[in-house]
Amino acid sequence: LTPDVIFHSDRGAQYTSDAYHRTLSKHGARPSVGATGVCWDNAAAESFFGTLKNELVYREIYPTRRAARSAIAEYIEVFYNRQRLHSTLGYHTPEHVEHLYLTSQTSIPEAA
Hints:
mainly alpha; 5 helices; 47% helix; Integrase_cat-core; Integrase core domain
């Protein structure tokens, strides 16, 4: 994970448990939860997981949990972030948009 990554979720019991928060902390991630009763607060996460399920999960039968995890990791890291064009990003990949953002940043000169 990149430093200071934020993992956003709803307020489901699994996302508010101590074990979940310890796992996030172990991997350097910060938790973020949506407001109770505000359906659009978590819209980006809901959209992503809907896409993941429709494009991958519902199309396969996984023989093991490990196989499912591997397929999902590959989908996210290889396809979704590096190859899949996103209409909300002007039909670019997230990787390309991140690259454009990072190369557009200039360092701030130190004060004399």
